[in-house]
């Protein structure tokens, strides 16, 4: 006795409800945990910004008088606090002495050499306090160093804010969870109503009713109804086909079976051996006919099933022909000749391989059966079709028979005396139709039958000539883009299918060519168009919309202008895989990327200035010009900060750091300094001997020119060294963002950094890069404090319209020659 138990039944309704409750509870708990964490982080961010703002406000009030650091504490420094927490502060000079504030707080903290606020939690005077520390680099006539500002606040208010956020958010979460559970129960009940209606409709049907279900159902259940209707349609077709097949098979098989039975009964009574042999031969013939009929019926059922279920893949015509011919016996295959054109040998058609094989086998079997001579299989093709022909030398078919023989159990007059079922060509016709082909029966001029089967070939690709024309058209349209004057085109190394990357930058074209050449070695199918412009005109052209349309990458040494464009929403965000290796100061968000390390240096002509008298600090330069104004009159050059974006950036940073900046500017005015818009112009003047000294020249250009043999020497200042990074961003309107991202990755990769540290002398910004001009090597050239200009919103302060205007007016007034 069987002990199998029936499968346990379950309720989908209960399962969904229980699962929904579990998900809601888990989600609610997760959300509460997230809100708790978020409330703490939000409170920390809010109060940290106040701490940072307070520290930076105090840092902005730091001044130097007579080599002493003084701080006039601004009122606004503490006005921003709530007043409910205790606040402590301390200001330390470069020697670690407390200038003002709480001495014991300074003892807890380390000296800070970062202009970016750093935060710490420490225990101070019996309470946990949050401390913001920020450094300010100052330059005095005798030294350069960092002033450190610490501002601390107790944390009661931030804890209260976090608790308030949490409590205000948890109550709605709990209420929504309870409401959601009720809605889920109600929704589930309503959701199953259409299924009940569908069930009633199906139960009321008669067994033979296979018409489509027309009950209105929701969209979610519509897929089930469509699938059910499709199944019933296939079932109805299968039943009709089986019923017809059974009826026709019963009729057709009855005759040979009756013949076999009758012949066998006569043979049982036959005594004459010769006549008995004849009876057995007739029995064998009828058996062969019945066997062939049964095989054809089974094959028709198999082919119909595969075609109805759309079984198939891409099939090679040449392989199909080879498979059919190979399966013939040796005598039959010797009669078959195959001719396939070279193009047709590569042709493939989508379809069922088994059905196509049986189609061709039936045609070949008919040709071999009704023809005693050789038969030919020919395959040709055109642009859209492949044609398969089977030609024989048999009696052929009369005109009216060509359509009739494609029906089931239909045969031509010439088939008399030949064993056959009349199903072969009907199978062929069905397969051709299912593959969207065309079947034609034609007479041969020399006698015989030509069975032609034509199938469409899908077009997956454009022809070679169409592609060539498309590329030619694209190339012809390139000159229609409005180019700027200084434009250079770098053809792709592999011009089979080039794509164009457009870069607009301020780097000298011969210098930037090193980057492009290496990039194209890694991406040989990329053609590069490079436009060289000055930094300020580049910025203005971008805003005016007169830059090349669809520019893919903007590169400039004026990082403040680059940050301004990104801050105003013109840059595309990109998470480069090399971003993690980039110093924090050398990128802003994931929009502006620095890729060089370029110090601001002083250059001089050794024929005009002796090495021992060369000024090595900003103060000694001012003193030299003051003491020998007549000697250096008209022989000093620096940037025209009104024309050069880089010049203005460096001057603004000098003014913020150095207490001797305006003294140096006054000295420039006394000697009638020459002001230039670019570093190369200053370098040329010094190298030619027309100028004696150049100030704040980009070290990258100076190192490269000296390596080429120019008559210049280079001084990396001993007090402080401003370092900027040449930056790049991808415009939102870029045509080829994928290529731009590839170039950003290249510039930050070891390959790109090796170019920066190599022949370009632009300096590698990523630490530990191999090359002559790595950031470590450049930093070791001087003894001053390395002060990178960080990319970030802080650069926007100097670009404020009124501040810039006043700065330029003051500069112009001071540096103008005095009569």
3D architecture notes:
By secondary structure, this protein is an alpha+beta fold. The protein folds into four domains: 16-164, Beta-Lactamase; 310-456, Histidine kinase-like ATPase, C-terminal domain (Heat Shock Protein 90); 487-597 and 725-788, D-Maltodextrin-Binding Protein, domain 2, CATH 3.40.190.10; 598-723 and 789-819, Periplasmic binding protein-like II (D-Maltodextrin-Binding Protein, domain 2, 3-Layer(aba) Sandwich), CATH 3.40.190.10. Helix content is 47%, strand content 19%. It is built from 26 helices and 28 strands. It has a seven-stranded mixed β-sheet with strand order 15-17-16-18-27-20-19, with helices on both faces. Strands 21, 22, 23, 24, 25, 26 and 28 form a seven-stranded mixed β-sheet that branches. Strands 4-3-7-6-5 form a five-stranded antiparallel β-sheet. A hairpin with a 4-residue loop joins strand 6 and strand 7 (144-154). Helix 15 (509-522) packs antiparallel against helix 24 and helix 23 (737-748) crosses helix 24. The longest helix is centred in the N-terminal third of the chain and has 51 residues, at 219-269. It is elongated and about 145 Å long.
